[in-house]
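Please go through the sequence and fold tokens given here and tell me how the chain folds. Record follows.
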Amino acid sequence: MNRLVLISFINKESFSKIVYAAVTNTKEVKAVTDGFELDDCNMEWAEKCFALLIILTIAFINIMSAKWGAYVQNICLVAKLAAIALIVVVGTLELLTGNTQYIEKGFQNSETDPFKLSLAFYNALWAYDCWNTAVYAAEEMRDPQKNLPRALLIGIPLVMLCYLLTNMAYFAVLSTTELTSSLAVAILLGEKTLPTWIQWVIPVCVCFSTFGATNGTVFGAARLTFAAAREGHLMRTLSYCDVKRKTPSTAIYFLTFLSCVYVIPGNFSALLNYFSFAAWLFYGLTVLGVIVMRFTQPDAERPFKVPVVIPGVFVLISAYLVVAPLIDAFEWAYVGAVLFILLGLVVYYLPVVYCKANLTFMSPVVTFFQLVLAVAPPAHEDSNPKEPVALHPQPNEAEA
């Protein structure tokens, strides 16, 4: 059971992070076009082409160097915090000058149906979804038992505080109609409160913010795919790394291809709902596995351990987020999302993992891509845990 839960989680994560990258870049482009008033013509395909360019740029950065990806993340973080600070200052000044008419009426006519609220939670929780990304880089951390909890305990409350203050500023400046109709709320706030000569700062910071979010997603999802393939839960070829740069380039190529596929027909709202449905289904299953192992393997070594009531509450919340949308507005697309994920059991798990099929006919194909992409299997058995992507020198080794 634990193995199936792990494989389900891995398949879900690969799917959900691909969707996340696609919708984030589409949203980024919409923010740019709205901010510079380019929405007077049909920009749909121009936006999607720009989104594809962003994905390819981020993939190139992360293939070339993990340090480059980290530098980009730090730069985008500074820009994001600067934009949040500016928005919060503007909103605070509005409140201090007595402009409270919007915030006083901000929650009038709010929806109270718990089943309808689940879709609203999808939109909010999607903004927090990278709470688990830090875990993917734990293998490359120094002293992860100390630094990983520290990162989570500092990062998550900081993000919550930034979001709360930002929303307070939005409610102080914008009406409910403006909030619900705008595709780029931060840019609209800037247009209403900032001088014309400085309004460009907000859309630029929005671009940096979403660029950084996508960069972090690629960084984390690539390492998740790399580790899963290395352990045999996905095709081992996805664990192959660049022989010169020591980056998980094969996983990045794979995720980039799928991200581009999702961008082309992508609709933000639909992708967000299906992503959130699949995400919380497998978040719940994964945490349920933690509860099960707490009783089936009580003596197992656990570097991180929390009271069992915490995962119990998490599983209940996950069940609500999965079941409520089906009750409120059932769509066959939700069933299709689950079937698409389960297809991985038929296509990969049953023949390759369970039946141990020997796909020797794939060897020439694998060898060809190894030579073209200059990748090789990781030497994880004897490598330094701080350098998990050291490589064996034989680029002609083929594993399906």
